[in-house]
Each structure stands twice: as structure tokens, then as C-alpha cells.
Design a protein that fits this description.
Length: about 400
């Protein structure tokens, strides 16, 4: 992992979120409009996330370096005595989902409610007794943009149940339970990165997470020196279209090859060195070889990048971001012309250290690391050039590293 010195944690005040107060008041009044006034109302905040580097490595037992971001999900909730759960969402006005924690919880309609159904079912399966509740999900995170709105909703709903019940559980356990919910109820075979950072992020820090054993180091991301800028291609990425699952399969095929040919103790691509991979060139099918090359090189790059961030060597860190993008584009083939364009354009602005596609790919967002004073120029440049080329304005979010899930009220 990165140098031990970087584990030194400076607790910065919780990131100030200017729109927090008004959106909180709005969410509460919307809750009362839908479910009626009275009783003890709780409000949970769960952030989105962006990954600085370490892409498609989490399901290969590798390293990732995400941060939680300021755009977030609020869950406004109140307990019920009859075991019923009623869910509403500001993103899907007029739709109400209902199920009972006292009966077997099935997948159902509307589709977005499966996040809530899955979380309730998996918490119960883990032996955690749940109360009924009314809950409103209020989202300032774009849906389907690769900023983990689904993990934020899942962790937010789980925390809502736990808060009403007066229970606490270990955050890593919560991440594993909600990951299972996403696999079983939303049907997307995601890795563990998103839930772990949404639950366990620290303000002012990136998390260097080892997805093999969930050990981590928090690396300072100094808001005086750095801003994270996210630009949205406005192309919704769909993890369940099959491409993501196919990449996972291809990695497994790679592992099978190394297990048979080299060492039976190889459990995942994390255990394969670049030297072992190179010696398999020509023996592995070409596509599988390139998929493995991305993963093996990306794990090394992530380790390296975290150490560079610790040393505040932002120029070199930025280079690793560019290498990561090229590898995702050429070897892993998960980028798109829109993501390539935004990453290239971002690098034309003075004060930008690096840029790359982030998340699963096939649309979604790019992430750039920049000096605070470069942010306005970067925003303007990306908006102007992208709109000219693709006839749609990208949404641009500027963020510092936010804290993980919290109970606001
Ligand atoms: C999606 C998944 C994550 C991770 C990334 C790629 O965001 O939810 O688990 O695999 O893709 O790094």
C-alpha cells in the first residue's frame, strides 16, 4: 500500500455543502406531503462517489482509489409499527412502492424500488431485525452516470432502517450486505468499491482500498491544493447491458489459464505479475490477454498513484490517470468517443494535472484533478467544446472529498 506516513489523518471539518440546508428542508416537506406529518423523522445523507484511479480492479481483488463526492442522496424516514415499508423517490414522482418486512421480500415494481427491497431482504437474511418505515429518497446525484447513485441509495436506505431500529453495524459488513442486495435484486454483478467508499469515506481524503481484504489507507486530498472536477457525457451507462458482466467473465478466463498453466494458488488477477502475463503472450487468446494486461497494470498504477498523491506529486499522479484512461480505452475497451474527447480536452487547460474516464465506462463521466484556480476555465472549456461537438451540454460537478454516510437528524 502507500507509505505509512499518509495514513496520518487530519480531520477536516465536514465538507460544507451550500445546497444542503435548502435541499434538506425541501426533502422533509416533500416527505410530509407524501406520508403526512407527525412522529420522529430522521434524515440520512449518503454521498455519491468518484474513483480517481483503479478501474475494473475491484472484482479482481485489486486496489482502488475513490473519494466520496458532494452530490448526494438524502433519505427522509419515519418508523412504522405494522412492518410495512413504503418508499417514494423524488426522481420518480407519483410512484410508491410497498412491501412488508414480515413476509418474504420479492423483486417488484417500480424497478427503482428493488434497491430498497434488496437491502431490506439482505439485512434480514443477515439476522438484523427490521422495523417498517416510510421513506423518501431525495436525489441530487445524476442517475446512471457512474457516480454510484445506486450504492448511495442502498447504503442510505440501510442506514435509515438501522437508525429507526436504534442499531449500528460495522460499515464493511454493511457494504458487503448491500453489494449482495445489488447482485440479487438489481441484477448487476458490481464489485465492492462503491458501497465501501459511500459507507466509509473520510472528508478531505481519498481511500486506497485493497478489495481483497477491505484493508485501507486514507490519503489526504488537500482542498487548498486540489479540486476534483467531474464532467458527465450525459450518456447513461448501463451496467447490466452485459458488457460489464462480460469483462468480469474475461478476467475469470484469464485466471483459469494462469491457475492451470502456472500456479494453482493463483486466485485472481491480483496474484498475476506483469512478468507472468508477458510470458503468456501468444498462449492466451489476444482479447483475454489485453483484458488481463489492463487489470495487472492498473493495480500497479493505483498503488503507485496513491504513493504519488501522498508525496503531493500531482503532475506524476496526473500521468497515471492518463495511462489508466489509455489502458481502459485500448486494452479493456470500455471507453467511448465522448469520454475520450472530454479527457483529451480537459488536459488542454492549464492547471489540470490529469483526466480519465471513471466508473464502469460505456458512458457516464470523466474525472479530472486540477488546481482550484483552474476550475472555472476547465468548466467553460469542457462545456463549450463538448456542446459544439456532441450537441449536448455536459453537466460539470466540482467537488472536494466528502465524508461517508451520516445521520443528519
Ligand atoms: C462500476 C462498479 C464498480 C467497479 C467499477 C469499475 O462502477 O459498480 O464495482 O467495478 O464499475 O471500476
Amino acid at each position: 500500500m502507500a507509505s505509512g506516513r499518509c495514513t496520518l489523518t487530519i480531520f477536516l471539518p465536514l465538507t460544507y455543502i451550500p445546497f444542503m440546508d435548502s435541499s434538506l428542508a425541501q426533502a422533509k416537506s416533500e416527505f410530509e406531503r407524501i406520508f403526512g406529518p407527525g412522529g420522529k423523522i430522521h434524515v440520512i445523507r449518503a454521498p455519491g462517489r468518484v474513483n480517481l484511479i483503479g478501474e475494473h480492479t475491484d472484482y479482481n481483488d485489486g486496489l482502488v482509489l475513490p473519494i466520496a463526492i458532494e452530490p448526494q442522496v438524502l433519505v427522509v424516514c419515519r418508523g412504522r409499527d405494522d412492518g410495512m415499508v413504503r418508499l417514494a423517490s423524488t426522481a420518480f414522482q407519483g410512484e410508491l412502492a410497498e412491501f412488508s418486512v414480515q413476509r418474504k421480500i420479492e423483486r417488484g415494481k417500480p424497478a427503482w424500488s428493488n434497491y430498497g427491497r434488496g437491502v431490506a431482504a439482505e439485512l434480514i437474511a443477515a439476522g438484523i431485525p427490521l422495523p417498517g418505515m416510510d421513506a423518501l429518497i431525495a436525489n441530487t446525484l445524476p442517475v446512471g452516470s457512474g457516480l454510484s447513485s445506486s450504492a448511495a441509495i442502498e447504503i442510505g436506505i440501510a442506514q435509515a432502517f438501522l437508525t429507526i431500529a436504534g442499531l449500528t453495524i460495522d460499515l464493511d459488513r454493511l457494504a458487503v450486505i448491500t453489494q449482495k442486495a445489488e447482485h440479487e435484486y438489481a441484477g448487476t454483478p458490481v464489485g465492492i468499491m462503491d458501497m465501501t467508499i459511500v459507507a466509509g469515506a473520510r472528508a478531505g481524503h481519498a481511500m486506497l482500498l485493497d478489495c481483497r481484504d477491505l484493508s485501507r489507507e486514507y490519503v489526504v486530498l488537500d482542498p487548498k491544493e486540489l479540486r476534483v472536477v467531474i464532467a458527465n457525457t450525459m450518456l447513461e451507462h448501463e451496467l447490466h447491458t452485459g458488457e460489464y458482466a462480460q469483462r468480469r467473465k474475461q478476467c475469470e478466463q484469464g485466471v483459469e489459464f494462469f491457475k492451470k498453466k502456472q500456479e494453482p494458488q493463483i486466485r485472481s488477477l491480483r496474484d498475476v505479475s506483469m512478468q507472468q502475463l508477458t510470458s503468456a503472450k501468444g498462449k492466451l487468446p489476444e482479447t483475454i490477454y489485453r483484458r488481463c494486461r489492463h487489470v495487472v497494470s492498473e493495480i500497479a498504477r493505483t498503488r503507485d498513484a496513491a504513493a504519488l498523491l501522498c508525496r503531493r506529486d500531482y503532475d506524476e499522479f496526473g500521468q497515471r490517470m492518463l495511462e489508466s484512461h489509455a489502458s481502459l480505452r485500448d486494452d479493456y475497451e470500455v471507453s467511448t468517443p465522448e469520454l475520450d474527447f472530454l479527457s483529451t480536452e480537459a488536459m488542454k487547460v492549464k492547471g489540470v494535472y490529469g483526466a480519465r474516464m471513471t466508473g464502469g465506462g460505456f458512458g457516464g463521466c470523466i474525472v479530472a484533478l486540477a488546481q482550484p484556480r483552474a476550475v472555472d476555465a476547465l468548466k467553460d472549456h469542457l462545456t463549450k467544446t463538448y456542446e459544439q461537438k456532441f450537441k449536448v451540454a455536459p453537466e460539470v460537478y466540482v467537488t472536494t472529498a466528502a465524508a461517508g454516510v451520516s445521520v443528519l437528524e
